[in-house]
Amino acid sequence: MRVRRIGDLFTIAKGKKYEETQANDANEMVRYIQIEDLRNDNNIKMVNKIDNGVYVTSNDVLIAWDGANAGTIGYNLTGIIGSTLAVLRPRDSNNYIPYIAKFLRSKSLFLRENCTGATIPHIQKKVLEDIEVPLPSFEQQKEIAYILDKAQTLIDKRQDAISKIDELILAVFWDMFGDPIKNDYSFCKKKLPDFVSKDKYAIKRGPFGGALKKDMFVKNGYLVYEQYHAINDEFTMARYFIDGDKFEELKAFEVFPGDLIVSCSGVTLGRIAEVPRDAKKGIINQALLKITLDQNIMNNTFFKYLFRHEGIQNILFGVSRGSGIPNFPPMEQVKDIDFITPPIELQRKFAIIVSKIEVQKKSYYQSLQHLESNFQALLQKAFKGELKVKDGVVTDERFAVI
């Protein structure tokens, strides 16, 4: 089997910040491809063509270059890309692009772990270029890509079931509380400082400037919470640590179980998650906001869904979403927003309903994790040339469902 470097197979070009003022007079429209478009087509955005834009075709591979989702891979897309993406253009037509794109997806975590930048990660071009791709014949590449697509379909169906559970929770929220912007049920309204705990650091943005640099990190110690945790509502990942002296210096940014953390930069601006009971002792990084609520006034579960509401997100981030790397608004603005504050008993009732629905969601997640684990094993076999296939069907018993 041939093996080639990505740098030998592709040229790599970084996207540019899209400037509407540079649109040409013809008013031709083109798809504006952003990081979320690398995953699905749920939110297609069309913009006017500009003369100096970076345009891509369906034969190119795209990669998220900057931000918490750096390393995310997409392909079979046509349009213009912004400054957070890069395009890999094939030097020849000797290989099947979907096969190489799927191989690169298997390297997404590796690319993310080798990013530069502690606050906003950036792909290292040399690391990407040096990745070696195993290349069987063109027909075998097509066959492997087809098998992987079938496996991915199973995962997508399970993810769709999980999405429907999320939609159910939103329906319950709407039924119990109505539109929080219109305040359909005339609930009392309070500003953020009125329903956080009395703790001095109940509302705290992460440390700025040079307070946290990569050369300060150690192999073990106090965890540095980052955007990944807020974006994915997942707390097992532990990448950066600081020692005891640095922890004491930055103790104002300490994270406690039950705190809420909010993503403050990039396209995932405004994602919110609750720190679990068994969370590691640590601090938030520069790209997070920490909120500690007074549970007698505002319930964590209720507030998470309130904060995620499109209307609240638009008030907070409506303007920022159009910029290259969106950022959190000034804290004075955040503290001045009016949030509906239903009776705490009603909030707690909602939280109980959510917890029951989450039981079903958890079982779906476990099934999804099993499918994804099998998929990773399938990837390893496929790219090592060990996948047993006959007439387009995997013969390995472990993957018989595919």
Automatic annotation (TrEMBL):
The keyword Nuclease applies. CDD domains: RMtype1_S_AbaB8300I-TRD1-CR1_like. This is Restriction endonuclease subunit S. Keywords: DNA-binding, Endonuclease, Hydrolase, Nuclease, Restriction system. Belongs to the type-I restriction system S methylase family. GO terms for molecular function: endonuclease activity. InterPro entries: Restrct_endonuc_typeI_TRD, Restrct_endonuc_typeI_TRD_sf, Type-I_RS_S_subunit. It holds the Pfam family Methylase_S. Residues 3-155 form the Type I restriction modification DNA specificity domain.
